[in-house]
Specification:
Elements (H helix, E strand, L loop, with lengths): L1 H4 L5 H4 L4 H8 L8 E5 L5 H7 L4 E6 L2 H14 L4 E4 L5 H4 L5 E6 L10 H14 E12 L1 H7 L3 E6 L3 E9 L6 E9 L4 E9 L4 H10 L6 E3 L13 E7 L1
Parallel strand pairs: 1-2, 1-4, 2-3, 4-5
Antiparallel strand pairs: 5-11, 6-7, 7-8, 8-9, 10-11
């Protein structure tokens, strides 16, 4: 995906590894070795942390450069993680039925699907490959908040080398939001601008699709600490069990 290809050299500065994500996933693991699929794994930071704990982890991302970064880290750490360049709507073709314990889909990955039909398709594929009692762990921006308050920006992210500005553009008559970003490279003030459409999936959509695809009632959190979700929390973290 061109959007991420242009920022991939700085991705880990913009979105550094979040230990709370690891702790959140671990809270749903009660066996020493399980099968985990990380969809939208980016450069593989979370997948590799889980692999280092003995789990069988496969990371999927549509951006080849991100996958190459993850593969290099795997070799350096001498881990057995597998990373695949693939579209998230091809998930069903990559795994056997009833073979995965946990599917992770963090980093607002789900919002890159175009509509509710595609999201429902993704959920159906996840249901197909998950074991009975298996779970999807999801995280997106809280679009209930974004839509209701017509928020036009998210807080900028700054590291030692870059500044990352994030803005939304609402188009009349369109269900999609234009996500516009500006990455500033501090050492030379070089600016990289990108824009991509996102589908703002909301809490009612999660409930509807979970029911349609035979998942249990989804559980919502306001962050990876499992604090209460509301329309004012910034992330929406969702757990759906088969």
């Amino acid at each position: 995906m061109q959007f991420y290809k242009t920022i991939s050299p700085w991705y880990n500065q913009i979105f550094p590894f979040n230990p709370q994500q690891l702790n959140f996933v671990l809270s749903y693991i009660d066996n020493p070795k399980i099968s985990i699929t990380d969809i939208g794994c980016a450069s593989g930071e979370l997948a590799l942390k889980l692999s280092s704990k003995g789990h069988n982890v496969t990371g999927i991302d549509s951006d080849r450069e991100m996958i190459q970064q993850a593969e290099r880290k795997t070799l350096a750490l001498k881990l057995d993680s597998e990373f695949i360049t693939a579209n998230m709507l091809d998930t069903k073709t990559l795994f056997r039925p009833n073979s995965i314990d946990i599917i992770i889909c963090f980093g607002n990955t789900l919002a890159h699907l175009k509509n509710l039909k595609e999201i429902s398709n993704f959920f159906s594929q996840c249901h197909h490959i998950l074991k009975k009692g298996g779970k999807i762990l999801l995280q997106v921006v809280n679009y209930d908040n974004i839509i209701e308050n017509r928020k036009e920006s998210l807080p900028s992210i700054e590291s030692k080398e870059v500044i990352f500005h994030r803005n939304y553009k609402f188009e009349k008559g369109s269900p999609l939001i234009r996500f516009h970003t500006q990455l500033i490279i501090k050492k030379n003030n070089h600016i990289i601008e990108n824009e991509i459409p996102l589908f703002p999936i909301q809490s009612t959509d999660f409930k509807k699709i979970s029911k349609e695809t035979s998942f249990r009632e989804p559980v919502f959190f306001g962050n990876f600490k499992k604090e209460a979700w509301s329309k004012n929390t910034m992330p929406t973290v969702v757990v759906c069990e088969k």
